[in-house]
Design brief:
6-stranded mixed beta sheet, DNA-binding, alpha/beta, Udp-n-acetylmuramoylalanyl-d-glutamate--2,6- Diaminopimelate Ligase, Chain: A, domain 1, 434 Repressor (Amino-terminal Domain), homodimer
Amino acid sequence: MPREDLARRIAGEITLSDDPGATLRKWRTDFDVSQTALAEQLDVSSSVISDYESGRRESPGIGVVRRMVEALLDIDESRGGGRIRQYARVISAGFESDIVQDLREYPTSIPLETLYEAMDATELVRGDQDRISGHTVINSIEAITRLSSEEFYRLYGQSTSRALVFTGVTRGESPLVAMRVVNPTPNAVILHGLTEDDLWEHAPALATIDGFSLAISNRDLEEMLEDLRRLP
Amino acid sequence: MPREDLARRIAGEITLSDDPGATLRKWRTDFDVSQTALAEQLDVSSSVISDYESGRRESPGIGVVRRMVEALLDIDESRGGGRIRQYARVISAGFESDIVQDLREYPTSIPLETLYEAMDATELVRGDQDRISGHTVINSIEAITRLSSEEFYRLYGQSTSRALVFTGVTRGESPLVAMRVVNPTPNAVILHGLTEDDLWEHAPALATIDGFSLAISNRDLEEMLEDLRRLP
DNA sequence: CACGGGGTTCGACGAACGCCGATATCGGAG
DNA sequence: CTCCGATATCGGCGTTCGTCGAACCCCGTG
């Protein structure tokens, strides 16, 4: 069923998009598929894909969209189904994939250091626990603007033994405050997209109070997500 | 945002459907909108709608689908937005609307009897609490076959002061067992779609142990859901 | 620098869409 | 019995889609 859920979501997004072509492209690149490969899978000329993506047809038929989506998922499946599984985790947890950018449960617990390396993160505060068994990557802006309070709870709560990664952080004030309010707290919080100079002055103190590790990272987002997916 | 989420979901379902026309019809009737009214909203002839629903065009353009969906939602909004809110509740809780058929939080708590009346239910066991402040209607078959264990937890847990209604029940064994396992338990469980004779023999005993009310109902499903929506 | 891979642009053309209006059926209201 | 709202069926017609293939661009690499 996860495949169907994801398919519906992609199809719905493309269908309602102001610019269906751009949305299609977004998903194709997200799945790491070239126009050529997609065209091959669909048994059409590669210019067809380009035409759609460039918006030459403003209202493609439903059939085209369906075929495109299925083809993308087919390709992913033939590669092992990594992307499908990744999105399935986020979706079945009930979140949008643009809010929760990744959500994983490792087969076994790993040292926090391993995560730091994958993210090229610098630790500022060392918490009580130094192993984690999963991580959640949250777009902090989207989360703060779009989540309801119950959803926050669902997202931040039940996060023991995990690391929460916040992307698009400017100072780190809101994520840290949220961690104070919520219970239980994660083992580690990693702020992404800022340098140590930008960090909110009270951040380390708050982390210390609740006993979780705090780190920051400023690596390229896409690359970082890519590496996180490969983790254990 | 709930409107957009719902719109995407409907659009996705139509786009990927084997029979887009039938799916469109399903949603239109679900929103209680006549072909004529939809056509009027879209400023087209009513035969257009009929043609689409009957499948005369096998691959309608994305634009058509978008306009249809938006029109349905516009109509609902002009009527107060009841359906949108209803689905929004289910969706933002992270479930599919065919698994969770309704999910409500009343503005104020109501006596259990009020719910019984709306469902034409017969109480078999009287629990410790006789008021509820919300209800969740769950398709028991879909739930058992499609939900993961975490999702179960999300659905059944955090259900204090609520009534859980299970539809499509044959004997009531699995819902009652699930209630034993989960914590906290709801104030009431109502099994729908069976008669007292069909009931699993141990059901009343289990309800008594956990102190929740148990009732059964065998009314027509659609009518019942309709009345539940109107509740307080 | 030539070659290949990824992508874009565009003319062309048959097929299918998008919409209309007329006609027809059917069940309920008056 | 008639009128009306809701839905279905269908011929018709202008528009757009769906697809191809050829030409072309950029960039990295042997």
